[in-house]
Every structure is written in C-alpha cells, then in structure tokens.
Amino acid sequence: MRFTDRDADAAISGLVPAGPELAAVQRALSLMKETLITEPSPEEVSAHAARFAAAVPAPGAAPKVLSASPWRRRVAAVIAVATISGVGLAGAAAANEAAPGDAMYGIDQALERVGVLDGGTGERVDEAQKLLARDDVDGALELVSDSLESDGELEAATGLRNAALAVASNSSGDDVRARVSEMLQWMAGEDSRGTEFGARVSARARQLSGNANENANENANENASKGANENANKDASENANKDANKDANKDASENANKDANKDANENANENANENANENANENANENANENANKGANENATGDENAKRPADPGSQGQAPETPAGTDRPVGKP
Amino acid sequence: MFLLGPPHMANSADKQGEWCHRGAGGRVKALTLKEYFGSTLAAARTGSAWAWETIYRDLAGAVAGYLRGRGAEDVEDLVSETFLSVAKDIHRFAGGESEFRSWVFTIAHRRMQDGWRAKGRQVEVADGEYAGHAAENAWLGNVEREAMTEMSLIQVRAMISHLTVSQRDVVLLRVVGDLSVAETAQVLHTSPGAVRALQNRALRDLRKDLVGDA
C-alpha cells in the first residue's frame, strides 16, 4: 500500500480528509486523541498555576550563563592558585578521586571549572563507576546523562537513558549494575564525539535492549519449560498413581474374583471330591458290607447246612470249608 | 479488527471532578497562543499566576494524553512534575512557541522514562506481581476514577499495541501532542526523516490492523 506524505500528515492532523487508503486510520486516530486528551478543570488549573508561579525562581536568582570573558579567565586563575594553595597538590589529587556525595567532590568540581583538573564526560564516567560500586545506579546514570546533555551530546544522553531503561526492565540488582557499568566503560573508551558518538551510543543501546529482551525471553522460556516439565511430571505422577491405583484396584478385583472363583472351584471340587469319595466309600463300604454280609449269610447258610444232620443215607462227614468264602460248599 | 466505538468520556468531567474532557464531538485541537505567546512567557517568568494558568490549560491535556497513551503510571503526578520543572527552568528557555511545546514534551518524555527506570529496578513487587504487569494494570488507571474511560483506554491500547515503542512515541506526539515532524524529532532527539519514516510505517501497520490488508 502506498500513500504520500501529504496523506500521512492529513491522517495525523485530522484537519483535512485523508485519502481513501488512510480514511479508516484517520478516524481511529481521531478517536484515540479524543480518548486520551483530557482538559484540566478550572479548579485544577488555578491550584496548579499558583504552585508553578511560586516555583519560578526570582529573576535575580536565575542562573546566568557565564561568558568566557578575559575577566572570567583571570578570576578563574586566581581561584585556581588559591584553591591549590589551600588544598595542596595531594589534596587536588584526592579531590580528583571524589565522586558525588563525597566531601571532596565540591573541590573536585571547583578545580575542574578553573581547568586544574580534567572535567567533562570522561571524568563523569569515572565518577559514575564509583557510584555504581556503591550501588547507586540512578545516581551514576543521572551524572553521565546530565554531563552528556551539558556537552550537547543529546542523542548519546537519550541512548544511555534508553539502554538503562531496557536493562532495568529486564534485569535486576547486580545484573543492572554490571550492564550499566559495562555500557559506561564502553562509552569512556569511545573516541568519537558528536553525531557519530550519539549514533554509536544509540546502536549500543538498541543492542543492549535486544539482548535484554532475549534474556527476558530466555528466562521466560526456561520458566515456561520448567513449569511445563513440573506440570508434566506432576501430571505423569498423578496419572501413574491414578493408573496404578486403577490397575491395582482392577487387578485386586480381578485377583479377588479369580481367587474367589478358584477357591470356590477348589472348594467345590474338594467338596465334590469329598462327597464323591464319601459317597464312593460309602457305596463301596455299603457294597462291601452288603457283599460281606451276603457272603457271611451265605456262609452262615452253609454252616447251617453243615450243622444239619447228614442224610441218613450218606456215610461219614462233609468236608469243612473255610468260612467266608462265597462259594457254597457241601452243597449237594 | 479493533472495536472503535465512541469514547466513553463525554460526561466524565462531572464524575471525576478533576479532569474533564474537551468533548466527544469532532476533532480535538490543541490550543496555541500564537501572538500572545511572547507576552505570556514574559509574564510566566515573573511568576504571574494568569500566565501559568494559560500555559497549563494550553498544554497539560495534551501532555497527560501523551503520557497516558504511552502507558505511564501516575499521569497526574508526572504532569505536575513536568510543569514544575518548566517553572524552575523557565529563565533558561529561549525560543518561540513551537520550541516551547517541544521543550515541555521533552521534559515529560524524560520524566516518564525516569519513572519507568525506577519502576523497572523493582522487577518483582512484594505480592509477587511483576512490575510489568503492575504497570500494565496501572496503565488502565484507577478503577473508580477511570471507570468511565476504561473501555476507551483498552481500545486505544489494543490499537497501538502492535506498534513499536518508537512508532508509538511518534504517533502519540504527532496526534495527541499536535507536534510537527520537526518538533517530534526534537523531543525524541532524532532526525525529521527518521520521524517521517516511523510515522509512515506506523500508519501502514495501523491500516493493516484496522482494514485487514497490507
């Protein structure tokens, strides 16, 4: 889709109808503006205006830009001599090591102003490193970005702020300190100044922002994976337990049934066998008894026959047969 | 496709008591002082209350709108801090109305970044809610106070959520701040060409989301 800069400006300004390509965008942007812009009430305007009016410094107290006049240079030279006499060279060296918040920092700045000590962004970066060592990340950033702005390095100052913002949004504690320190060290080592310096700081800020986002994404992925694994393990355990319980219950039921069936069968068989045996025995016994009785009876009958007096026509006794035999003996 | 119904802010002034809307009908246009700017600035430098009322009425709504659109927290506090800084440094300012507007938005932009940076350092808050989420929730505003506007803010958020941060800055400064391409470039410390490129890309992306084709 192509549209001209004029169409784009029309869509943005909302004052003239945009071309058909951007008509929908123009309507949406107008609604966005109506939604976001609110006008302060008269009461609020009065209250705030009074505060702001009171905050305006008196004209006499307004900071004046010092001009680099010959008189100023002469006064500066006098101050330099007086300051060095006062604090001595060792004192000046000690002051040079001071960072904001230190007792000697005022002297350090005074000596920088008169040119005895080096000032500028390089010096501020060194001081910022000291502040970082004291965990004062905000102080370090403010010191360097203010210094950059004073030097007219607006793009670099913005780049530094953006870099710090990106790092702070995605890191914490020592990590922020380390990354900001790394950024400041890199800036201190940069020789370029002006537009090139600003562009390089901005590029570095974008890189840092990209890394920070990547780290954040990595952490998010790690956490997500960890969470997913934990959940998976938990689910797996739960499922395993559930399945195990289910299987155990199932097995137990099956085994119980099986055992019950088995026992029942066994018992039934046993009983059946017992009964069968019993019956068989009983029958056998009965039969045996019957046979025995029968035999005995029959024998008894034989005995009786034997005991019966011999036929008067016969000579002698009938031969004796063993008792209990089924074969009747002595029968005629 | 986003829902772009009428804003729910038309009568919010009476309910909120503090902020009121410029009106739902028609295009909201920022006020400009034009030929009165010089005299107003001069009076503001002397601490004249009427001059500060004029400046605040002219710019506060747009500054608050820009901050709100960018998802800043404590918008009213940020606006107040911005104008306090303007008051303290008013003697150092040099330029016309266009430069003044750029300057005010530059301070607001910087205050917002400082606020995010301070917030970003506290990655996790006490109750375990991530700072980003807290900021996002706060972006929607105080529930009681913003009840009438919540839906509209959600719609705005949805509309610009696919834009990059730089695109959002450009669109909001251009549309809500009523800044020109050059003024926007000044606020963002970049070139007018870069602003125009970001603006055109943002419009293309917005159209794609709204209409559905490339």
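Chain B touches chain A through 84 residues (CB under 8 Å).
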